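Hello again,

I reread your note about wanting to compare the complex against the isolated chains. To keep things tidy I'm splitting this into two emails, and this first one only covers the full assembly. Below are the input lines as submitted, including protein chains and any nucleic acid or small-molecule components. They are followed by the predicted structure of everything together. The single-chain runs will come separately.
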Amino acid sequence: MEQVIANGLYLGAQYALIALGLTLIFALMNVLNFAHGQMYVLGGFVTYTIYGRLGLPFPVALAASCVTLGVVGALIEKFLFRPVVRRSEREESTMLLAAAVAFFLDAVILLLFGEKQRGVPKIVNGVFVSDQLIMPYDRIVVGVVAIAMIAAFVLYMQYSRPGRAMRALAQDRTAAQLMGVNVDRYSMIGFALGALLAGAVGSLLVTITGVNSGIGGPISIKAFLMVMIGGAGVVGGAIAGGFILGMMESVGLTVLREYGDITYLVIFALLMIFLSIRPNGLMGKPWG
Amino acid sequence: MTATAKLFASAALLLLLLVGVPLFINATGRSDLYYTLTSVALLSIISAGVWITFYIGRINIGQGAYALMGGYVSAILVMEYGVSFWVTLPLAGLFCMAASVLIGLPILRLRGVYFAMVTLVLTEVARLLALALPITNGAKGIVSIPQPGRIGLFGLTIVPDFATLANPRFAFYIVSVLLMALCFAALYRLKNSRIGQLCQSLQQNEELASSIGVNITYLRVLAYAISSFLGGVGGAMFAAISQSIYPSSFTVADSINFMLNCFLGGLGYVFGPMLGTFVLYFGWDLLFQTGEFQLLIFSTILIALMLLLPNGLLSLRLSGRAKATAAAPPAHRQEETQARSTAAGRASS
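Full-complex prediction:
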């Protein structure tokens, strides 16, 4: 049981970080970022190139992944989403754009890195063994880094000036603009930050599960699940959703093992029941 | 365009598809076009379902789930119970309809991205379900489904047995085009009916519509059920043409494509899904020669289209008129719909 909980916590920390990026972009821009999974994959491949191929230290690769994705996110916001948001009649149009961006990133990743599954050497060797618990050290390191990043993100949003501006923007765009918040600038920062988080998780997880160009879509779906559980556009909700999904996956894989591969079916059924009672998730604003 | 002109244009299009295209294909000998055009016709039927949910203001990325369900229902009925394919076609649609009512009742309370996300997950769940259920034969899928049999009435053959035909692709093409024509005629009728007007009031403001006396729960479940019906019929037809169905026949990517078809054609136009499917499918096919750059070029064009025409392809055709009345219509249209829904409310109370 301790093993299951530890696995759940480790998974949950990763998931929460993915969901945070997605929910941040949604809160600021009202854009459902279909390309989130692809951004994760891109982050993984940047780390693979720098850490796995060039042999530079892992922190450098992690930083490079973050910076690359941050820049990519900022460019996507400035040159793609901003004009479309401004000109389209229905805000759903951004969804088409997000899907097209997802295809685009998929294509770029496929061309640059190929379709093979890629792995990198472990960042820390050895396994932690106690009576109830077996946990490789690299997983512990990755889990701790992820939790530290979540804490840093929450503190940044809570106390820094850009963080406060972004929260104001998420609450009410017009009011924030009237108070003198530079809406365009902070939308861009927010999008970059969301993309950066996706890249960071990709970079962290490539050291454990590896990465291949096809997992972007499934990752996006998981991120959507988490955001639905927690409520879209709320930081606390994304963290809660991430940990809940991680825990359910971990428990489900253990408990339901003899029934075959039905963990996600069960999770979805539970989600349907949950959503029919609470349509806006645990902490979401009504109708986000 | 007047009503008569519209009717003539539609009839001409149908004639072109039923007579012109086969003549063209015979002349050029490119019989592979039959399969492409059949796919376009069927995909546009499925996309039309997505369009209906757009019409009530919901973003539906779960159409792949119903297409898959329809395909499996038809395949299982044909294979296990020996039912004629032509009977299973509406049955598949009805089965999806029933399922969508059960699923729709809770999830249609969600809006905006929430609904989009939950339907997206629904597609994934349909795939997992197809993998897990014993009757669907897991990842191996159901293969070598027999071709549709003959329909006769009083000994008279109306539709011949497809297996005996020299060119079953041509037969499938005709059937699909007829289905598509039927579907879009019904869609056009639906949009311009009282229910269509009420649906538009849902798209604009559900609370307001509800306060006026529109039964919003009934309407949105109805729209979703019709949408799923079309998905099921399209999926069943696809299973018949490819004579096989796998859990991966309709995936999340397909669901997203159905949505893209609607977007690309333009959400405000009944024929949007048809045009969108045509352009998207043919664009994808044409780019096949570019090999590994296919997806890159395709997505770049999509992004460029979004930047240039954020309101869909059909907005181009109407842009001249739209510009002239650009300032007035939104408010005007809303008033009109409100007035209509007020009248409707009075009628139903």
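For quick reference: Residues 319-349 of chain B have pLDDT under 50 and may be disordered.

B.
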